[in-house]
Amino acid sequence: MMTDSLVAHSSEVEKADFYRKTYLHVALSVLAFIGVETILLKTVPVELIAMMFGQKYTWLLIIGVFWLASILANKWSLSQSRSTQYLGLGFYILLEAVIFLPLIYIAVNSAGVNVIFQAAMLTISMFAGLSLVAFMSNKDFSFLRNIIVIGGFIAIGLIVAGAVFGFNLGLWFSVGMVLLASASILYETSKLKNTYTTGQYVGAALQLFASIMLLFWYILRILMSRRS
Q1: pLDDT tens-digit map of 91-130
Q2: Alpha-carbon 164 to chain mean position
Q3: Exposed (0-12), middle (13-18) or buried (19+): which is 48, by Cβ within 10 Å?
Q4: Predicted structure pTM score
């Protein structure tokens, strides 16, 4: 059991240690995602991948399960038990690898591996830039919370409607989601000091990792649409 203090109430050394551990876990999460995704692409039958995005109700079911499981993973990652925290983070990485499987498969076979590399570089650059803005400006980005929540519900509604009624959400939806993911990165970065305790770097890393993956998803979709 851990009895850590809020990062805001900690010494500069403890804050630095918390930030270092948080971003180290974000980097390790990304590497773990790449490893798991590579394994899935090599082992999951093509027919199963096609079924994931070929049937609209199957995809909606996958999204629903992903959302519910993400809530559970997030809860675990903020547990007082270190082992439970890592269980939550590992579970979430696996969830992301599964949900990304059809998109990565389509990208590789329609646009090539280079488009994934380009999307990854753009995502890393944007994440680094937004993180610097959040840290260097010392601005409180908590006002973004309501925007992110409302925007998230609107996005889910549009995704469900698009799947049910069979219409393409288009380029501008992806651009809007990139903006929403960017806002999420600013918000989650500004939360590091005031929301988490010094022992919750695993949970903090999960939130940042989730925002990065959302950003990567829609940057990749934008790049793929430009090549089609």
Answers
A1: 999 999 998 998 899 898 887 889 999 999 999 999 999 9
A2: 24
A3: exposed
A4: 0.89
